[in-house]
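hey m, so remember when u said the tokens were messed up on ur end? i reran from scratch. heres the input so u can diff it against urs
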Amino acid sequence: MFRSVAWIALLAGGFAAAAQAAPKKPNVLIILADDLGYADLSVQGCKQFKTPNIDRIFNEGVRFTQGYVANSVCAPSRAGLLTGRMGSSFGFESNLNHDLSSKPGSTVGLPLDQKTIADVLKAVGYENYCIGKWHLGDNQKLFHPLKRGFDAFCGLISGSRSYWALEKHDPIKTLMVDYGYMDEGQVEDFYVTDVLTDKAIHYLETRQKDQPFFMYLSYTAPHGPLEAKDDVLERLDYDFKNPKRKIYAGMVVNMDDNVGRVLNCLDDLGISENTLIVFLSDNGGPTDKNSSSNWPLRGMKGQLFEGGVRVPFGVCWKGTIPPGQVNNEPVISLDLLPTFAAISGADKKTTIETDGLNLMPLLMQRTGSLPGRTFYWRRGEKTQVAIREGKFKYHQNRRKGEEFLWNIEDDIGEKNNLVKEHPELASRMRAQYEKWETTLPPLGVGIGAPAPDEGKKSQKRK
């Protein structure tokens, strides 16, 4: 399953070291931000506001400077993260078409034959909690988190909602607790990010103490609508010229406050040293909508420039992963499932289907690099494609007839198009991408391919 004998040896050494530091199966916590800009943490260089709690995760472990996600929009990125597989491999390349996914009996969502991290860890005794944004299918009979390996759920089925209590019930936006709905109007000082954290802490404090847990804490912040708490806005001392940017900053700072509450809870419970924590965003910031910043990257959410698919990416495991690391090796959200399978022993119990790699040898500094591999991305009814191999990235916008080639290591901002300078390389990478495409299944209707009538409209637009 791993790619070389040398890599297997490194893995074995990494497991042995981890086992000495943490004899019990480690807990796993993913904290996922929504539409966070690449530059919008102080550990990532932000000077306008501070995020000391999120910074802790990066500083107490590894900050990856080239951390990627599976797609540049919410749903397919989450599908990739939770399955460890590129969504293209099972036809999931776009956000859900809610006109289709919300219909009774809809089959639009994360395909049922795809195992999630929760499925993998449940098989080796983990209690699994899903908190926050789901966005992987509206039909609760098929796609509810409790049907996909999780044991408890508090969150919203859809992709976004107001941060304040909803005045009118909405079946995919009102917060659920398992299969029931929260009476949001009865919650004092209701603010979604705070409420989700309250529930996360409740689960941590009331869990079975002798059972390892996996918690997927999927905040909606700082995805729109732009709504921040007044008391947080009053704490911001930067002179924001853009009022939208100030509200966005307030949402990020509030999320940081809540991350701090979770980290402090782990400390108070005495389980920090047996908990691996990952923080990342689902995609790059939509700079035109929420005033996020992806500097120095080009592009934004929805695009396959670096600003769409490169995100803040930090991993820590106190007492096991050496702290203070800054690692420039390209990694991707798909690597999380095989990493968790390795540290939990799940990979010894079953074959793990994944497009990712176990990161433990890298995290433990037993190797300085991962085996060579290629990243592929595709979205937007196959109109945007990209491939990253080594230091080079090839990108094609088929709708506009544009193609690009960059040396990403020297040109992080994707400013110098090398297609004319290196036509042979561009041609080879294009051919390599097209060969990969021949291995993919058809796009799923509503998660990649349009409904038949939408296809006709799309053709007319062209």
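this time it looks ok to me. DSSP finds 16 helices and 16 strands in the chain. if urs says something different then somethings off w ur setup not the seq
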